[in-house]
Amino acid sequence: MRHRLYIHLTWTTRDRRPLITLPAAEYLAAHLEVIAYQERARILAIGIVSTHLHLLVRIHPTVVLPKVLQRMKGATAVVARRDHGIRLEWAKGYNADSVSERAVDQVAHYVVNQHQRHPLEAIPGWPRDRGARR
């Protein structure tokens, strides 16, 4: 089966507080990829600043998006605190926009450059050569 379903996901910290530190960003980047893989999705690009994050993901047609987001938000917050001493609190909800195959590169560029779009929310030391990938 050939599928090319792309979604641009965004969510914020609770009250847009600057909770995402460098250790939190590194933790999120690693663990979100694992969750995505487990849920039949692949992260193509990730952009993280202290108050929110952006993901460009390719998903399988059988993916239940609310389930994936519940795991990405809920599980990362619980495990971050329990296993790593990292405090992450997410605001309710998320934004999900479909992306055409033609726009994938443009959206990936937008996603990975969040630190330039929001310089006051940039995390020192992030990103660490984490560009877009297919």
SSE inventory with pairings:
Elements: E1 5-12, H1 22-38, E2 41-48, E3 52-59, H2 65-84, E4 95-99, H3 104-112, H4 114-117
Antiparallel strand pairs: 1-3, 1-4, 2-3
Helix pairs in contact: 1-2
What does this 3D model show about the protein?
With 134 residues, this protein is α+β, with helices and mostly antiparallel strands. It contains 4 helices and 4 strands, in the order βαββαβαα. It has helices at 22-38, 65-84, 104-112, 114-117; strands spanning 5-12, 41-48, 52-59, 95-99. A 4-stranded antiparallel sheet has the order 2-3-1-4, sandwiched between helices. α1 (22-38) crosses α2. The longest helix is centred in the middle third of the chain and has 20 residues, at 65-84. The protein is globular and about 40 Å long.
Mean pLDDT: 93
Name the beta content range.
Answer: 15-25%
Task: Please outline the major beta sheet.
Answer: 4 strands, antiparallel
The helicity comes to 25-40%
Global structural class: alpha+beta
Name the helix and strand elements from N-terminus to C-terminus, one letter apiece. EHEEHEHH
**How far apart are the termini?**
18 Å
Shape: globular
Cα-atom radius of gyration: 14 Å
**Unreliable parts:** 130-134
Give a short summary of the structure:
The protein has 134 residues and is α+β, with helices and mostly antiparallel strands. It contains four helices and four strands, in the order E-H-E-E-H-E-H-H. The protein has a four-stranded antiparallel beta sheet, sandwiched between helices.
